[in-house]
Design goal:
Number of helices of chain B: 15
Largest sheet of chain A: 10 strands, antiparallel
Shape of chain B: globular
Low-confidence stretches of chain A: 702-706
Helix content of chain A: 10-25%
Structural class of chain B: mainly alpha
Oligomer: heterodimer
CATH architecture of the largest domain in chain A: 3-Layer(aba) Sandwich
Largest sheet of chain B: none
Number of helices of chain A: 11
Distance between the termini of chain A: 85 Å
Number of domains of chain A: 3
Mean pLDDT of chain A: 84
Radius of gyration of chain B: 21 Å
Helix content of chain B: over 70%
CATH superfamily of the largest domain in chain A: P-loop containing nucleotide triphosphate hydrolases
Number of domains of chain B: 1
CATH class of the largest domain in chain A: Alpha Beta
Radius of gyration of chain A: 34 Å
Number of strands of chain B: 1
Low-confidence stretches of chain B: none
Order of helices and strands of chain B: EHHHHHHHHHHHHHHH
Distance between the termini of chain B: 40 Å
Shape of chain A: elongated
Structural class of chain A: alpha+beta
Amino acid sequence: MEAIVEIKNISKVYPIRRGFRDLRGEGGILDLIRGRKTEKKKVLNNINLEIYKGETVGIIGKNGSGKSTLLKIIAGVTSPTSGIVKVYGRVASLLELGAGFHPLLTGRENIYLNASLLGMRKKQVDEIIEYIIEFSGIREFIDQPVDTYSSGMYVRLGFAIASHVNPDIFLVDEVLAVGDEEFQRKCRWKIGELHEEGKTIIFVSHDLGTVHALCDRVFLLENGNLVDRGSVTSTINYYLRKIGRESGIHTLVNQKEDFEAIFCHGRISLFHNKNEITSPMGIDQTFLYLQQPHSSTMSDWEIKERKMNFIDGSGNLFRLPIKCNWKIKLENNELLIESNFELLKEIEIQASEFRIFLPENYSRFFYDGIEETFPPLVPGDTTWKPITIPNPDETTTFVLSENQNNYPPLKIEFSSPQFKSFMNIGNTDYMSRSRYISIFTHIPPDRNFRIPGKIEGITLKISITKEDDYKLWAEKWKSSKEALKKILLKDFYIKLVYGFLEFFMSEPEKQITSSIHLHFQLKCKGLWLLSQTFFWGAPRLENSKWIIKGKCPRLPASLICEMWKSSENTIEMNIYLEVYEELELEEYNVSIALILDYSNWETLYERGTFSPISEDQKEYIHLNKNYEPSDWIKASGENLPNITLFTNLHNKFRMSPINPEFSLRARILQAIASPERAGYFVFRPGVHLLFSGGVKLEKEIGSDQQ
Amino acid sequence: MSHISRKIYYDSEAQTSLWGLPRDLISAREILWRLVWREIKARYRYAVMGFLWAVIEPILFMLLLLFIFTFLIRERNMSSLNNLSTPMATQILCGLIFWQYFSTSLISATYSLVNHQNLVKKLYFPREVIPISCVIYPILNLSIAFIALILIHLILGGKVNLNIFWGSVWLLILILTTTGLGLLFSIGYVHYRDIGNMVNFGLLLGFYASPVFYPLDLVINACRNGNLPPWSLKLYMMNPMVNILEGIRHCVLSGKSIEPHLLTFPLLFSVISLIVGTYVFRKLSSTVSDYM
């Protein structure tokens, strides 16, 4: 293989410039006469490097370590003091977008000028100029002088030229740090594309995450010397360790030395047996302000206390008046991050989010009772894709890989004392190629959380476990949750599903409610709210009563539902409404949707049959004629248990048998509460009983006999 | 995988060697051309009168000088002006346009590297093209003004013969001298900004110490009359522009053939300045971005 860039024994010494003594400080004419020598700066020291065609090579190092100088030498902008550089290909720099634009020339003239500076002939430019104009998207302005352009148009034209001149070698110097989000994304995409095209890319950056993601080989420049540790990961690790003791970077190790965490300017990377188990983006925290995320990596960090396995640090965000405080502790197989943050000025933060990025190798996860595999990351992924529905009561997740020696199962837990937080799990875009688990904390738009002061954050625990531990845990999880979600009667059982109750006959197993099952509806300002649309928490079991609570969408109220088994085949319930601000309701009801096989209904006043529902029926049809309040309604059908909806609140509810719209495929029994005269139910802040009653099930005698 | 097919685009060794220059210049001809065009376009795009300024400016200057010398300073030495073969106006104009070419080119070449630092600091290309482009683009102005000069010369009753083409030899010498000095000063200016002040002052001095608005005979006569010491003439003749301007006048206005005694010194000077300028430039240009 032939090198496209050959660097042999190069050294670079920057001379100190002579000038007027008072202004320059040294090297004035008097120094020259006296023969006083000034010090010289050696930036690169005897560097040998060969770069091959099609490689993406990263150069990392501290500020002033000579990265940019090396890049300049490769670009031919400056030449080395000693040694030889040979470049066998045209070089273009993705950073110098619009370098050499003349403000008075038109866009088109500047394209020719710039392309010729990048080494193209006029004829070649003639061929591609249309593509450049098309790509830049500023065709209307192309014959205007560029000093009339906005800075955005300027950069777009520059980028269009740089990406079309088709050089063999691209130099990228911190390009991802400039420009807006959109532009950075475009740059990353372009770099990926160039890589696929087999172009040679030389990449200089502070952002180790990006370097890790993009580069085939990485070199570290250390005081002008080139350090190559073989693989990308080991060079980066070496670098992190090397500069670890300096400000903002710290390595935490457990006693057995098989679990390490490296904290680097607001980003934590985890290592298991020296192998990185987080993806290069590691773990960070972002704050959402005006819909823009601000990362803890964009902060100035100060470590207040450090030990082998503990650090206490705080970082001031560059762009927001926020100080985030992390206490990180590593013990045995557990990493514990306690976080909080301080608002330094009045500012309204919308949310805070902890993000954990894991490599592609993690392929499965367990969350909220479901074990699922991550979808594969494909080049078409340009956006981040969440793949779970967050459940605010689920605070634990497991992630698993196929290669458990290198990527052990991880258990990720959090607790959020002050606010509701929930977990999101998903895939990042293809460029970042990671799985993410984020813990999203919504901060309510409340004055208390706007004024300067401390705000409690979450505590995050990440532990390395074993597959067996995971299995045990999952079993336990399932059985405990199942118990909570199922109410067993003698001949029936009831499943608590998000927002409604499903009724089943246990022997023979048969579902007797359908589609929307037992549910609750309330009407406010002409709007019907179904219990399924509420934000329900997980059920609790207290004194053999199941309690679930759900927040109403749009209304300042919550429903609290209390259920218990009152006799062998009867379930009773109290439904309360917790109101935070005065609320007016027009109507509410408790309904039970039965399967279509139910044919007869009976109330206190009359009885009848459910007529067939025609396919074009779009509305609810009440089948009874007497609308007086009563205490119960009953339905029966052949080979079906009798089911009775009853209330303990005397003369408060009207009981109606209903044929609903065809698509529901159900018969409905409904207990309707409506105000006595045309008016509202007015609820003052506090807890109010809305419904008390239940469902009685009777196994039909006929079927019993069979 | 043959070595022959591999084109080398950049070699740090070839950068400082004088022998790499022709190859570099050939590869960069497109850039040179674009830079020249860029200067010309940027200069005249928003000027209402456009290229007319190339004519108006020297003519107004000439009129000003003519006014000063015919009305304000009526001195006895001026008597020698009266028996000139061609009118004072064309004499001055001829001196002016070539001097202006020289001074514009030299100033813009001197400052060119620093003015183009956004290119120099970011892109690789043979640095020579920058000062050279500054020597080339004023030729356009010069040509326009030259045509105007010939017209005025004919209108005022002068004659033009084929010897006018010897003028191109003088022009070549002028361009070479300017290029050599431009290369030298531009690289010098990057290292020591003092050079800028020196060039400015030098050109101001040169304007008076060259036969721009007076004929060479005036100085020679002054020495003969004893108004000036004889060594001062020798010093005066050290200025290559003296011979160049005088030689051009002779060819263009008086229709004389090329005169070897005038030619020798400027030719030598131009070749030496070109060699020295190129050598120094070549040695220092590859690290020029370190000084910006």
